[in-house]
Design goal:
With about 325 residues, the protein is α+β, with helices and mostly antiparallel strands. About 35% of the residues lie in helices and about 10% in strands. β6 and β7 form a beta hairpin.
Length: about 325
């Protein structure tokens, strides 16, 4: 698995993220996130903020299809074991962010102890254990080979690495990105293909076994990475990482240049394209196609639209 953050040394997991809150944290939760994020040396306020953004986007009433609850998405059994009375009101309430956020931080610290002897990047192992359980990380000897968990780790790492105060792409940058991508129309799809310099040979293999190793072109995120590199904004490599490194926008506020993401959740995003207006996007759809223009409803699982934000850490 590629390095998710720059090397920091085994004893300084949180250092790579710093302690400043660079994620978009609602004002009413900033104080509790700042305090809870310093529960132990293995985490930071910024890491905690990124995790909560990924889990629920700070929605205290969030409930997942599998039963996870609240702002930190605790399963009931996990809450029974790890939930704490964070605000001292005599109750442990998973729906109360003043309880759930400190509980999430404490759980991360407990997990850090569980997986401290597992090889690999400690931060990645901690995040993977929050998603898949410490047992899965210990058994795998690192981040387990689950696509959802791997995307989860990458997304949170990318979000936590956003520069504090970073501003979304300007209209001029968006126009430059669209122009760059438009010049690539007709280039073949290549799984893993494309970088900041342009089309490239890809890798093996897609979920359906298709290889891009002999094809010079782009996959979906390779195209958006290239387009925004031409506009002066460095994006991470995968679609899920790019979503984490962008600022979500409401449908009524979409503008050309925004990135359009497809998937059932932030952790399972599988496709990205560049919105060009009028209900259309420019994208590299799938193997055996070429870079082209498609309608936004080209796939049924349109998840979100977001505006790229320059990232602080390019080694993602």
């Amino acid at each position: 698995m590629a390095a998710l953050v720059q090397a920091t040394g085994d004893d300084s997991v949180a250092t790579a993220l710093g302690t400043a809150l660079s994620a978009s944290v609602p004002a009413q939760y900033r104080e509790v996130v700042e305090e809870a994020g310093n529960t132990c040396s293995e985490i930071s306020p910024n890491l905690l903020a990124a995790l909560l953004t990924q889990e629920s986007n700070f929605n205290p009433r969030a409930r997942s299809p599998v039963g996870a609850q609240g702002v930190a998405q605790f399963m009931p059994s996990t809450w029974e074991t790890h939930g704490i009375d964070g605000n001292g009101d005599g109750k442990r309430d998973v729906w109360d962010p003043e309880d759930a956020i400190p509980s999430s931080a404490k759980y991360l610290c407990d997990i850090a102890k569980d997986v401290k002897n597992v090889p690999g990047n400690k931060q990645s192992n901690i995040l993977a254990a929050y998603n898949a359980g410490p047992g899965a990380v210990i058994k795998a000897g690192g981040v387990p080979p689950y696509k959802e968990t791997q995307n989860y780790v990458r997304s949170i790492t990318a979000l936590a690495g956003k520069a504090p105060g970073g501003k979304p792409a300007t209209t001029d940058q968006a126009e430059a990105a669209i122009n760059a991508a438009s010049e690539m129309i007709g280039k073949p799809y290549s799984w893993g293909g494309g970088n900041a310099s342009g089309p490239s040979t890809g890798i093996c293999c897609s979920p359906r076994g298709r290889s891009g190793a002999s094809i010079t072109g782009f996959d979906c995120s390779g195209l958006t990475l290239y387009a925004y590199a031409k506009a002066g904004i460095a994006l991470p490599r995968t679609a899920a990482q790019q979503y984490a490194a962008s600022e979500p926008v409401k449908p009524g506020q979409m503008r050309p240049g925004d990135l359009v993401f497809y998937g059932k959740s932030a952790a399972s995003i599988h496709h990205v394209g560049i919105y060009i207006g009028g209900g259309y996007l420019l994208n590299a759809p799938r193997p055996d196609t070429k870079v082209r223009v498609d309608p936004l409803d080209m796939m049924r699982d349109l998840y979100a639209v977001a505006r790229p934000v320059p990232i602080q850490n390019k080694e993602i």
